[in-house]
Amino acid sequence: MSDASLSSAVSAIRDRQTKIVATLGPASNTEDMIRKLFYAGVDVFRLNFSHGEHADHQARVNMIRKIEEETNRPIAIIADMQGPKLRVGKFKDGKIELTVGQKLRLDLDTTPGDNVRVNLPHPEVINTMTIGSHILLDDGKVRMEIVDKGDGFLIGEIQAGKFLSNNKGFNVPGVILPIAALTPKDRIDLEAALGMGVDWIAQSFVQKPEDVMEAKKLIAGRAALMIKIEKPSALQYLDQMIAQADGVMLARGDLGVEIPPEEVPVVQKKVVRTVRMAGKPIVVATQMLESMIENPAPTRAEANDVATAVFDGTDAVMLSAETAAGQYPLEAVQIMSRICKRVEKDELYRAIIDADHPDARHNDASDALTVAADQVAKDIHAACIVTYTTSGGTALRAVRQRPPVKIVCMTQNTATARRLAVSYGIFSLKITNVTTFGEAVQMAQKALGKENLAQKGERFVMTAGVPFGTPGSTNVLRVAWVE
Known about the structure:
- The protein has 483 residues and is an alpha/beta fold.
- It has helices at residues 3-13, 31-40, 54-71, 123-128, 184-196, 209-219, 232-236, 238-244, 252-258, 264-277, 300-312, 321-324, 329-345, 347-355, 365-379, 393-400, 414-419, 437-450; strands at 19-24, 44-48, 76-80, 95-97, 103-107, 117-119, 134-137, 142-150, 153-160, 163-165, 170-171, 200-203, 224-229, 247-251, 282-285, 316-319, 384-388, 406-411, 426-430, 459-464, 476-481.
- β15, α11 (300-312) and β16 (316-319) form a beta-alpha-beta unit.
């Protein structure tokens, strides 16, 4: 199959606006499986640096780039940093049985624990916790309240839970810990990931704006930064952190442990809307089709969960263990894609999206032009909106409007094309050098038909910044016909 026919085949698969992120792992670490996942609908691949060696991640990057070259389609790669994952130590027998009311000492002694005590290798946690604070262990299955505290130890009273085993993670809700979001391991992993040429760095467990600033400084423009919202404290500084980051991932796993379950849907809607209005991509992640780790079909509740995220207007939905370690990685992608497409075709979806339409930012001519482009496209029933961009800013303005048609992003910058793969509705076209707006329009007229994005004679709306190569200056709008 030629590059051109491969490209058309792939573009035909993406008959939806919402993107899909899939995590790679033991169930999806071969070139053949990665290729199948891409054709099934994956737009972005996530590498989880909590697991695996650098050589394993490099091999997967090489496979993805090979598929990218074969299909002539830009593919985004997210390198997800582990962050300061808090864990208890080990037990003599691997685990202990718990009873409600039981006291358990948490201390700095590295000796394997028992029913009386266990190692908690985080002195900063011990120092920060106070009597009356709560610790949630093993994703909230075990809950304890701190009833006493001394030099280098805490005494917790078990409130719920039956067992606790080696190295289980724990959360401390309502407490901002004096722990850097980037651990020494993260710093090594970050440099390795940037050396591999990944497009996004996902920063785990951000708590405050300073965490984001530190990551941005270390990345130094070599990739885009996606902050993960998984601590309630991050919600306090949401606007400030969104302003500094390039994108956001709502990681509902750890966040859902630390806030009441009834708050999770409300927080999801707030975060998705806030990030969308800021004009940056938002990914809803964790436990979306979790039963498909072992089953060939999701539960009805899981299907509804994916649909809700799409109705909320998310840029992308994510699969974690479903594709990394599950028995049905390909089926999980296929079903998620079908759910996204079905929601987007529903009249209620379009009504919800349009009801919360962002206005142009005050005194921002580029924004005003982009809002106008969206309205013109609707009025003339345009086949698509075409943006010419170097940095991606013009395309992201169009994404903010959530138009009902595809946003075709023409760019000479490979890094820009890849980074935009996570954004709602964007179909990136890597083009050769053009120097005038007229040349860009002519290129679009030919490319849209070739890529099966529009039919001959259909109209499209095109925006760009003139003179070319000036990031952030969208100042031209034109209606043209496909040749």
